[in-house]
Amino acid sequence: MVKLAHHSRKDPMKETLILKFTPEGNDYVRASRMLSTKAPVFLITAVVMGIIVLASLLLLIFPDIGDPSWRGIAIVFLITGLFYLVYFALIIPIQLKNAFKKNPPLQEPRKFTISDANITMVISGNVSILEWENVKKLIQSQGSYLILYEAGERFYPFIPNRAFKDEATEEAFLDFFKAKAIEIR
Questions:
Q1: Residue 106 to residue 102: CA distance in whole angstroms
Q2: What crossing angle do the helices spanning 70-86 and 40-61 adopt, rounded to 10°?
Q3: Residue 143 falls in which region: left (phi positive, over 0), alpha (psi -120 to 50) or beta
Q4: Are 141 and 147 in contact (CB under 8 A)?
């Protein structure tokens, strides 16, 4: 005779999940990078810039390749590509961290209450109700999640991994998005 195991695990969709955290400057940098690196326009631009920089380097390192008049263009493209890299890797993070330090609302604790009905976000007593039908995607990256929300205008709340008390809490969080058939990347 086969004995069936009875699982007493609660249905996560009948529960609410509460996540609390206080943002840090690096959270905004991570969210910005997550958003940009998942955008097709950014990825296409990055690939094109990479190809242009490599071609420019080849033209400058090996002057016998191509027409000598191309070297001037190669220098301009190389400088443009390097500026693009420095801007993305250094300048944007510095700007975001400075904005974080100068803007107290960005430093306020956040509380997310996730239920079958919606996601409620509270920041400094301001309540935002995020309806599930307007959640477009959940982007997952090492150390953080980014919710792509669009209801009239776009909104991108992030939740760092430190908001989850354990793996079971993180799994329950993901279960809500899976149950609503929201793409998780």
A1: 9
A2: 140
A3: left
A4: no
Tens-digit pLDDT profile for residues 46-58? 888 889 899 999 9
142 in Cβ contact with 136 (< 8 Å): no
CA distance 157 to 112: 10
157 secondary structure, DSSP code: -
Cβ atoms of 34 and 146 within 8 Å: the answer is yes
Could you say which DSSP state residue 19 is in? E
With a CB cutoff of 8 Å and minimum separation 6, the contacts of 157 are 110, 112, 121, 130, 146, 147, 149
3-class SS string, 51-116: HHHHHHHHHHHCCCCCCCCHHHHHHHHHHHHHHHHHHHHHHHHHHHHHHHHHCHHHHCCEEEEECC
What gap in Å lies between CA 182 and CA 140, rounded to an integer?
Answer: 12
pLDDT digits (tens, 9 = 90+) for 121-170: 999 999 999 999 999 999 999 889 999 999 988 989 999 999 999 999 99
Q: How far apart are alpha carbons 105 and 41 in whole angstroms?
A: 30
